[in-house]
Amino acid sequence: MEEIFALWQRDILRFFRDKARLFGSFAMPFLFLIIFGSGMSGSIRSLLGGADTPSAMASFDYVKFMFPGIIGMVVFTTSIFSALSVVQDREFGYLREILVSPVKRSSIAVGKVLGGTTIAVIQGLLMFIFVPFIGLKINLFIMIKLIPAMFLIAFTLSSIGLLLASSLKTSAGFQMVVQILIFPMLFLSGAFFPITGLPAWMNFLVTINPLTYSVDMFKKIILEADKLDPLLRQVMGLNLTVLGHQVTVFDEVLFILICGIIFITLATIKFSRSS
Amino acid sequence: MNDIENNMNNIIEVKSLGKKFDNLEAVKNISFEVKEGEIFGFLGPNGAGKTTTINMLCTMLKPNHGTASVNGYSIISSPNEVRKSIGIIFQENTLDEKLTANENLLLHCRFYRIPKNERENRIKEAFNIVELSDKRNKIVETFSGGMKRRLEIARGLLHYPKVLFLDEPTLGLDPQTRAHVWEFILKLKEKAGITMFLTTHYIEEAEICSRVAIIDYGKLIALDTPDELKSKVGGDIIEISTLDNKAAKEEIENKYNKEVTENQKILSFKVDKGHKFLVSFIKNFKTPIKSINLRRPTLNDVFLKLTGRQIRDEEVSAKDLMKKRMKMHGRMR
């Protein structure tokens, strides 16, 4: 345990010491929210509402709709890219210091994944400084529900990242592969537009995408879906159904958890074998 | 000699160890022992298989055949026990440069499960040995090459290893820093009595070792104390350059019946009692001499005698470069 904690602490320490990375992480979400979000707001509302906008739609705000998606984007990309540190440790030599010590390979894998997970959750939480500017109301209860939800998906994606980092030898290669993987997952998760009325093949991809369930959880928590007008819920795509079954938060937690367990196992095995 | 008693003093035992990368045999069936408390040197040109051997002994690389034990533990069946018994200074820097010197050492303590209440003392002690106490809380990135090396040595000592492996500990350092690092290594041997296993391609460094193994193309070609090895070369060495090396070579071979080797336009041959030989040699030699030099044999001469090449032939052939690259590639895998 001591070793896992030590590895975890090292990653956190390095994260806070890298000021450029810390501040740079605000750039993309800011651009998405302010430029993309504000710019698209009007057209999305009329698109969703049709010609005669129902009264419930008047309270629809695209920027608010997008905010949970932005949190998702930050948490997803940060966690999956966190395994880059493994590739860099290999390139800069520090991985050999760890590998030649008596620390178990599985402990190294778990320590790295937990480090990436924590950083992703911190990054996600940092995005809440945008909250006052977009007029959302966030209370402590929302945060308490949100943190484990973020942790769960970040853990799963960090594991996927480590699995890739164990097979890819250069940081350039790793970044390329992760980008090719994460962007389709992100776009097919409902983070930026409601995933309703999609073609069948796309619907299939959306259904098997763990990010879909994560984004849905974030939306339900942050937007307090149970307090929304049913019509608004419908157009925002918050009534996610799979095979005719309306998905509950419990189903979502279970699905992501299973994915997480599968990927941390695969990543640990792959990492132990490759080093 | 009593065999069992002999084995008890061996901290490292290597039995027909071999490693193949694709179709390159980096280490070919080598066997040797390292005695407790000695400085054991692994001397050979670049790409001879030194690092590959060290990597196998450190459990970073699995051998294709053969076995070895370090501190009584097999590198194959109990790698974790081996890891606890050893400290390693790798050829390349393995510090976390974004952290402070102290943080690097503290992490090491935690990886090796050094009890919390002992950590501070050990870290202090290690900083003292390498004289970096005043740089304790500086970020490693700001250190010079020599300071980084010393910090790595300090780190390698924290868990009181039985054997300290040093892979080319002075590679890439300027001569002054090299001497400094060596001072620490010798001080360490005196103070802590740790067995040290080091690889080098610097002759002068190998001369300091208690015993030296010479390795070439993955094969162990000699193993003894530096003095013993040098005495096998026999006598003194005379090096001359002349206006006509071909004629001079013939003359020496006919007149004195000596074996002459030519390297970079310098002829060299061995004689007994060189200082007396030199006087009559200069008087009677027909070919005009440009320069002449008399010296004691070095380990390089031993290598030359055994392989016909110099250890530090700077012209590395394309094939050797390929090999080196393959080795590095293989190591990363």
Give the structure's gist in a few sentences.
Chain A has helices at residues 2-17, 19-24, 27-49, 62-82, 84-92, 94-99, 105-126, 131-134, 140-167, 171-187, 200-208, 210-222, 230-235, 249-274; strands at residues 241-242, 245-246. Chain A is mainly α and 275 residues long.
Question: What does this protein structure show overall?
Answer:
- The complex is a heterodimer of chains A (275) and B (333).
- Chain A has 14 helices and two strands; from the N terminus they run αααααααααααααββα.
- With 275 residues, chain A is mainly alpha-helical.
- Chain A has one domain (2-274).
- Chain A has a two-stranded antiparallel ribbon with strand order 1-2.
- Chain A is globular and about 65 Å long.
- By secondary structure, chain B is of the alpha/beta class.
- Chain B folds into two domains: 3-225, Rossmann fold (3-Layer(aba) Sandwich), CATH 3.40.50; 235-296, Alpha-Beta Plaits (2-Layer Sandwich).
- Chain B contains 13 helices and 14 strands.
- Chain B has helices at residues 3-8, 50-57, 79-85, 101-111, 116-129, 145-157, 175-192, 203-207, 226-233, 245-256, 274-284, 299-307, 318-332; strands spanning 10-21, 24-35, 39-43, 65-70, 73-74, 86-89, 163-167, 195-200, 211-216, 219-224, 236-242, 261-263, 266-271, 289-295.
- In chain B, the strands form three sheets. A six-stranded mixed β-sheet of chain B has the order 6-7-8-3-9-10, with helices on both faces. A four-stranded antiparallel β-sheet of chain B has the order 2-1-4-5. Chain B has a four-stranded antiparallel β-sheet with strand order 12-13-11-14.
- Classes of the chains: A mainly alpha (275), B alpha/beta (333).
- Chains A and B meet through α1 and α6 of A and α3 and α4 of B.
